[in-house]
């Protein structure tokens, strides 16, 4: 069980700390290998202009899912967290470890590296839908368990991708050297979480 105080840390710290965590939906999922942080005062955040019906989960209880449709095509899964309402961590990629055959069938792909490499692929592989919005990521049907590793994981740090505002912020985090990230990090700044 994750201490509820974990979710009330600064959003970029949570984004780092969930790298290596195990995330599943109905026992299908894997290890988080890539995240991005978004804060209320961030022009790239869905919460920047305040609460709306679409982003209401971002202003609700911490530790919940914020699920939205990107470009009208793909669902995206976020973890609501942070020091103030309106912050969330986008889960960009997983290393598939649980229910791999189920994910392959949902994605129509045998390539393990492409099953969950990107927010849309990840949500299709886990079958994340709008009705998962506002559900706790630490209770069924979700499960989120922080990395049990005794030593900190090495992180690649870079700018967020797929956005047009505040692109200079180094709030994209990845498990160093992971072949399961959505895109390689352009300039690698390594850090230990």
Describe what this molecule looks like in 3D.
The chain has 193 residues and is an alpha+beta fold. The chain contains 3 helices and 9 strands; from the N terminus they run H-E-E-E-E-E-H-H-E-E-E-E. A hairpin with a 7-residue loop joins strand 4 and strand 5 (88-98). Helix 2 (100-107) crosses helix 3 (119-126). The protein is globular. The two termini are 20 Å apart.
H-E string: HEEEEEHHEEEE
Provide the CATH topology.
Answer: 3-methyladenine DNA Glycosylase, Chain A
CATH class: Alpha Beta
Strand content: 25-35%
Instruction: Note the main sheet.
Output: 9 strands, antiparallel
Query: Could you give me the name of the CATH homologous superfamily?
Result: Methylpurine-DNA glycosylase (MPG)
Annotation, overall tally of beta strands? 9
How does the overall form come out from the CA principal axes?
A: globular
Tally of separate domains:
1
Let me know the average pLDDT.
Answer: 89
Helix content, binned percent: 10-25%
Distance between the termini: 20 Å
**Rg (C-alpha, Å):** 15 Å
**Unreliable runs, pLDDT <50, ≥5 residues?**
none
Number of helices: 3
């Amino acid at each position: 069980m994750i201490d509820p105080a974990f979710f009330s840390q600064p959003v970029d710290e949570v984004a780092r700390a969930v790298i290596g965590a195990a995330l599943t939906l109905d026992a299908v999922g894997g290890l988080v290998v890539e995240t991005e942080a978004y804060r209320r005062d961030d022009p790239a955040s869905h919460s920047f202009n305040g609460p709306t019906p679409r982003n209401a989960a971002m202003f609700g209880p911490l530790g919940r899912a914020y699920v939205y449709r990107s470009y009208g095509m793909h669902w995206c899964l976020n973890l609501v967290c942070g020091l103030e309402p309106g912050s969330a961590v986008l889960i960009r990629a997983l290393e598939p470890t649980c229910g791999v055959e189920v994910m392959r069938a949902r994605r129509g792909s045998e390539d393990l590296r492409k099953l969950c490499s990107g927010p849309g692929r990840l949500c299709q592989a886990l079958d994340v839908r709008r009705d998962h919005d506002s559900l706790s990521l630490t209770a069924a049907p979700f499960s989120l368990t922080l990395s049990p590793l005794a030593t900190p994981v090495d992180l690649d740090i870079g700018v967020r991708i797929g956005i047009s505002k505040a692109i200079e912020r180094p709030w994209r985090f990845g498990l160093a050297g992971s072949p399961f990230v959505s895109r390689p990090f352009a300039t690698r700044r390594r850090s230990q979480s």
